[in-house]
Here is the input.
Amino acid sequence: MRVPSTFGQYVPVDSPIHSLDARTKIGMIALFTLGLFLVDGFSGLGVFAAAVLFVLWASHVPPRIALRGVRALGVLLMFTLLAHALRWNPATVTLVRLGPVGVDAEGLRTGAFFAMRIVLLMVGTSLLTLTTTPVQLTDALESLMRPASAIGVPSGEIAMMLTIALRFIPTTAQEAERVIIAQTARGARFDEGGLITRVRAYVPVLVPLFVNLFRRAEDLALAMDSRCYRGGRDRTRLHAAVMAPRDWLVLLLFGSALVALGIML
Amino acid sequence: MIVFEQTGFSYPGSVVPAVHDVSVTVEPGVLVALLGANGSGKSTLARLVNALLVPSTGSVFVDDMDTRDEDAVWSIRSRVGFIQQNPENQIVGTIAEEDVAFGPENLGVPPEEIRLRVDEALDAVGLAGFQRREPHMLSGGQKQRLAIAGALAMRPAYLVADEPTAMLDPVGRADVLSALRDLRSRGVGVVHITHHLADVLDADRVIVLSSGGTVFDGTPAELIEDPGRALRMGIELPAEVLLADELRRGGVSLPGGRLDPVELVEALWRS
Amino acid sequence: MALVAQGVSYAYEVGRPPAIEAVRTVDLVLEVGELVVVAGTTGSGKSTLLRLLAGLLEPSVGSVSVDGMTLGDSQARGAVAIVFQDPETQFFAETLRLDVAFGPRNLGHSDPQGDADDALAAVGLDPAVYGSRSPFSLSGGEARRGAIAGALAMGARYLLLDEPTAGLDATGCSAVRDALRAERERSGVIVVTHDPGEFLDTAHRIVALDAGRVAFTGSVEDLYVSPERYEDAGLELPPIVRTQLLARARGMRIESVTLDPMRAASALLAAREVRL
Here is the structure.
């Protein structure tokens, strides 16, 4: 079994997009998503598609990897297309007719629009995870949440919890695999019976994992105390992400481009 | 110096104290082995050093700071590093360098300084170049050395290691022991808690705990020269040490300390 | 009637150079009534070999058969039981008896809890005392034996154990060794360990692996007579054994080499009197 890396989707390449601050990219995603839902024509969609292609090119991520997710969406896209395009006993003009079912030109266009938007949303947002490590993301989240700490939200601690959770994903996966193999060696079957039987079959896997989890939490707390963890405040960072002028510039340009297009189209 | 002054500790709800009337001092630059059977109180004693636990009776001082003093706790913890038995459950970073940086980050050390300390610490434990390695790709011995690096990056004066080799294979154990010895030569006072006598025959001092009290405080050589006493204290002695003792009793003249098989046979032949 | 590995090789990441050959052309035969120790340093392939013998991995070359049948056969199911490292981390049931009964229950035995009690007794854990205790309340050595009982209860003819004494103190180690000594009468046992020294008076045969290949195979006495290839594989005989072997080499009469310091001492002292 290929153990998941803590780096998740991240593709380790050097590119201008990779070196942008994570907060810039999060900002761009936010603007992109907002803009995408305000667009109402194919021309507008076309501009967003061009933007995605441009960023994809600039990120040096192999298109094959970036578009991997689109294939997984195949069913959803087909469904969206058909849901809009097909008409039952339509009175309006149709392109094709097969008995009581027909394809409507207008509906086809709407379906294509929505499907296209889903694809752009998917590729656009995955560009974030492809070019940003999970730790950069949690750091960015912590930074963005920091203003909320004024009203009592423990942003530092939340970010710490997220980082630790990420850190233990591969470890827990390894442990789960080991327990499954061990219980299988004792004759456990995980692929037999109805739903309830299958769920119950996982008890001998879940219990040991949970017991381990509690032990782990205790040990970790002790270790963190020993290393003087006092919560999020006053902590410095090995890699302190700073918004460089370039980051602000990119964000500004991106935002104004989208607004301008919005006004024009 | 770490000073235990008639220290006693009872866990809440427990009638029998886990540790009672322990008076011991540990100097910097010295490797002290803390031995004892399971339940002898050695883990409890370990946690009393860096104020994870506070004594019920008596006191514990680290460089003249009282562990009961709440204001001194963080100073104490930055002065005393702490390594546990389970290598996995001490690592919080997603990659090695981030874990080593955890301690200095908590202390508010400036980023450039953190970078220096991280690289230095990884180097010191033989993990140079491992900066971007993910923890789950490391062996047990490497993880444990990573934990030591994490403690080192805080520039401690002392390191308490609670059975650090218990879950490791021989290669990992040898690497960790070598790292601990190296710490001693850098002037760090090491308290190595273990139940293997073999691990600590090159310690400077051995303290043996039994049922929460100290029953021995001396050199390793002094400990093994009376195997009967060691066994009564609950120490497992290696077979060859017991053999040497039995041969001595049979009239063979053997020098004290560890003897390798060649020396033993030599002495036997000559007797 | 034996568990047989014939010319077995196994490689990780085949097709992606460099493929890691964990096991190379290993032959091994285990019969009921034997305890064989498979020794080697980290990376010698011993754990991989164990998994091949248990049927968890398919050899890239060669074959593994149990009592003449291939491991995949439904008849072979339940013939081989394997105990992994740190098996006590797989406890999940409310009582030790229920946990140990898990294996026999899955195999369709008629009285899984009876089998569990028998297995607990076999490892020195009195079922009347330990059966209804929570497996999570056991000490290190007790838990380890409880987990081993979980495999014994399956009634397999061949029992494979990966580092059964790792992490235990001396009392725990000898309790496990005693349990295995008793078990080898009933079944064939293979113990994989990086510290074969402590099994020298329990084992019938030693197989030493070095980088996936068999460096030494023979009885314990064979090993004492010529330990060179064993030592080349990175393994060391315990000092007490080396002492007795050196004495022998010097001409002193040592009848049988033992791990027990008292017996070794009296043998050496006695031999001192009679020199060849």
